[in-house]
Write a structure and sequence with these properties.
The chain is of the alpha/beta class. 34% of the residues lie in helices and 18% in strands. Among the domains are: 154 residues, 3-Layer(aba) Sandwich (Rossmann fold); 215 residues, TIM Barrel (Alpha-Beta Barrel), CATH 3.20.20. A hairpin with a 7-residue loop joins β16 and β17. The longest helix has 18 residues. The protein is globular.
Length: 550
């Protein structure tokens, strides 16, 4: 029996831990229980790969069984693959699993022989034993194969699931994010999230976690992203893991990413985090909304005061990259109410602010609130909100425009000084982004691919039109931002009038060893450390600044 475990990721930099975990567990079960299920390949593609090439690579290898990991971002791509595979090779058994199909939901466009619901490691092996031996075999865990539906009991002890990385396969993850799971489940019941479907949290024991982290630290990987849904829901455990990382990875070029509840950090943990080397740790914290009524209806439990307090402290420490999230479209939240959430979250000045839109995920509890709140969602992935009782499509379109500008300017990290000063001329951050978005739409630049250099030119045009008396001031700010973000000494065209032709005079006291780091902004000289970017901000640090001597 020849089997393929197939992942279709959203980007090349991503990897799929599910197929690797299923593979590792199957091989361990073979050794333990003696039921060999044959050859297993793993292939990872992306939704951006040429479809015909992916189909060719799969079909020409003549697999007997193909298992697909199905998610909101790849279900359309995988649906097409399953249809065409069955047309060419009707005998090939297709197994699907993953969050998009694992909660009893039907997808008419997917063609499959079996669907794994819930966790896949045990269910997949049990099904493969059946396919190889044509009969149900007694295994030391409970499983059910009912027609097309395959389920198995959860592994209560996560240490029973093998570590998916080793010296042989780790090179396959070069230049990609390493995903790691130290717990399963979430203690919260947020209506918009699939993690709320499973009650309770199961933890991998700390000795095993430390062994796994030691492997990452020694193997030379650049980033490890914990997929735990609320990593610090157990504060003491989180503190132990942070402590291990700080102590053992302080001299290693590696980064650990955690999704956290910002309000759950204790003072003890924050004191510990102050000791972390710059860039070693980064956090993603979901604020979602600052409107208590929306959070309560979404069953989102957050101490907003503590959340904001802790985020500010982490940002002020300066050694940890902080990413915060908002969700547009929650119950009871009108456009004006969301603007308030946006402004309050923005003024935290986190390193990134993600403006996301509510999605109706199959199996999530939000499905029970659709009628009550008059929700209209797209029937197609990613099942995004189109309207509800509180926001029309036009309201959401305003937010879509703001999201585009936010991503291009704020989240790029390239315009920090410029935006910090420009915001002073508006009543609120949202007003500023809305005005820039209107200009983008008026000049046919909205929602199109734009180079980073062109972003400077467009913003300069916007400022020149709206604040002509401040044009040179903002040009200086933008040129500084450019030099702090880009090591090339050739600024965008609109900013070159403040830069072109400047040379070091004999009177400038600049060490010759750093002359390549010198940049000019009008009559000011700046020396940046272009040897490396700041691991927290993604910008180059300033070493020196002075007026040019005549």
């Amino acid at each position: 029996m020849k089997t393929l475990l197939c992942a279709v990721n959203s980007k090349y930099v991503h990897s799929n831990p599910a197929v690797w975990s299923i593979y590792a567990q199957a091989r361990e079960f073979e050794n333990t229980y003696g039921f060999n299920i044959g050859e297993i390949d793993i292939k990872e593609f992306t939704v951006n790969d040429v479809y015909e090439n992916v189909l060719y690579e799969i079909l020409t290898n003549k697999y007997d069984v193909i298992g697909f990991s199905v998610y909101i971002w790849n279900v359309a791509y995988v649906s097409r693959l399953t249809q065409d595979i069955k047309k060419v090779d009707p005998k090939c058994k297709i197994i699907i699993g993953g969050p998009e199909v694992g909660y009893g939901t039907e997808h008419t466009n997917l063609v499959y022989d079996f669907v794994v619901q819930g966790e896949g490691e045990r269910a997949f092996y049990a099904l493969m034993v059946l396919l190889v031996g044509n009969e149900k075999v007694k295994l030391p865990f409970e499983y059910t194969i009912d027609g097309k539906i395959v389920t198995a009991e959860k592994a209560l002890d996560l240490a029973s699931i093998p570590f998916i990385y080793n010296d042989e396969n780790i090179k396959r993850f070069d230049n990609r994010i390493i995903y790691y799971e130290s717990s399963r489940g979430c203690p919260y019941s947020c209506a918009y999230c699939l993690s709320s479907v499973e009650r309770g949290v199961r933890y991998l024991d700390l000795d095993r976690v430390f062994d796994d982290l030691s492997f990452f630290i020694k193997s030379g990987v650049k980033q490890v992203k914990f997929v735990d849904r609320t990593f610090n829901c157990d504060s003491n455990r989180a503190c132990d893991i942070f402590s291990y990382i700080i102590e053992n990875a302080k001299d290693v070029d590696i980064n650990f990413h955690f999704e956290v509840g910002a309000d759950l950090f204790t003072d003890e943990t924050l004191d510990l985090l102050e000791k972390a080397p710059s860039g070693l740790i980064q956090f993603e914290a979901g604020i979602q909304s600052t409107y208590e009524k929306a959070l309560m209806e979404s069953v989102r439990k957050t101490n907003l005061e503590r959340c904001f307090q802790n985020i500010r402290r982490i940002i002020n420490i300066g050694n940890i990259h902080m990413h915060v999230d908002l969700i547009a479209g929650l119950p009871y939240e009108t456009l004006d109410v969301f603007k308030k959430s946006f402004n309050e979250a923005y003024l935290l000045y986190s390193h990134q602010l993600q403006l996301g839109f509510l999605k109706l995920l199959p199996g999530a509890r939000m499905n029970d609130l659709v009628e009550k709140h008059g929700y209209v969602f797209s029937n197609h992935p990613p099942y995004e909100i189109l309207s509800n009782r509180y926001m029309s499509y036009d309201d959401l379109a305003v937010l879509k425009r703001v999201e585009f500008i936010l991503e291009k300017y704020y989240n790029s990290g390239r315009f920090c000084k410029t935006l910090m000063n420009l915001i002073m001329y508006y009543d609120s951050p949202f007003d500023m982004y809305e005005m820039i978005a209107r200009y983008f739409e008026k000049t046919n630049n909205l929602f199109r691919s734009i180079s980073s250099r062109e972003l400077y030119d467009i913003l300069f045009e916007f400022v020149s039109l709206n604040f002509p008396e401040k044009k040179d001031e903002f040009a200086r700010l933008m040129l500084y931002d450019y030099h702090a973000s880009d090591s090339s000494n050739y600024p965008p065209m609109t900013l070159q009038y403040l830069w072109k032709g400047r040379k070091l005079s004999k009177d400038n006291n600049v060490d010759k060893s750093v002359t390549n780091y010198v940049r000019f902004v009008g009559d000011e000289l700046y020396v940046f450390d272009y040897s490396r970017k700041n691991k927290v901000t993604g910008r180059y640090d300033l070493l020196k600044a002075e007026k040019i001597k005549n």
